[in-house]
Design brief:
- This protein is α/β, with parallel strands linked by helices.
- It is about 30% helix and about 15% strand.
- The chain has helices at about 15-25, 40-50, 90-95, 135-140, 160-170, 185-200, 215-225, 240-245, 260-270, 280-290; strands at about 75, 100-110, 115, 175-180, 210, 230-235, 250-255, 275, 295-300.
- A nine-stranded mixed sheet has the order 1-9-8-7-6-5-4-2-3.
- β8 (about 275), α10 (about 280-290) and β9 form a beta-alpha-beta unit.
- α6 (about 185-200) crosses α7.
- Bound molecules: SN-glycerol-3-phosphate and magnesium ion.
Amino acid sequence: MARSDGLLLGVSGCPPAQQTAAKRGKPSLPPFFFAPAPPSAAHSAAYNNGSLLPDLTSTANGRMHRPWPYPRVVGHRGAGTLAPENTLAGLRKAAAMGFGGVEFDVMLSADKVPILIHDETLDRTTSGRGSVAATPYARLASLDAGAWFGPQYRGEHVPSFEEAGKLCAQLGLWANVEIKPARGFERETAVAVAKLALNLWSAPPAPLLSSFEAVSLDAARAAAPDLDRGYLTDRLAPGWAEAARALGCVSVHCNSKHLTQAQADEVRGAGYWLLCYTVNEPATARRLFSWGVDAIFTDRPDLIPPDFA
Ligand code: G3P
Ligand code: MG
């Protein structure tokens, strides 16, 4: 079957890997999953082996100029401010609101278990105190990560990355996994996250790994070269293009507060997908999309719903 974008699909109208999943009796995935897959080596391997598809990685600059294949509005830290951040409840809330994609932050426990949390300390979002990196997983898993947000979320725990990945698959949520290392653990956090991501996502759509830390992106590439990486930065400083290229990134993620239209043109002109955080006002979202921004992360999924035009 030929599609308008030139890709070929199997008889059921979905990519071969998804047909295989369907045969195994897995739940069908939401419609956005049937859009073109990302330009990763994993994608090429998955879809080019049977010579069904052209080699989409051979553009002039080695990157893509294709439409963003994932959700345009992504729940930040799960469901943003509508549920406790980086929890399974947040992922469920995002899915229940119709979101097809979420972002969350992953850090290592003292015994090197990747878990979902944003801060290097437990104080703000859990019932614990002190350093995440100094706390063993068994202790982290026993903490309350929902009561700080509201009594209805009491009993919500600090999830492991494994739990979150499995839940995303179950809920049909695409994930942008932000590698969020505690200081000094940049490399090992990335290696643990990348390796586990490879195991957790055995079929497309694979998660997009991003990080503010170049060392982490470099380590993620070495550990899982087939997973796509996003260059995450607050401001687009001079040299961003060289850095993103050196790290083999497919996307650039930046703070919407600092982005200019000229920078958006530059990023997209260089062949990167462009993602912006954290966009909580519809007018801002509209402006960014009009500049060609491919996706936004939002804390206000109630104001910027998944089908926001
Ligand atoms: O990944 C986008 C955004 O989450 C980066 O900032 O601090 O919210 O993790 P932060
Ligand atoms: Mg984040």
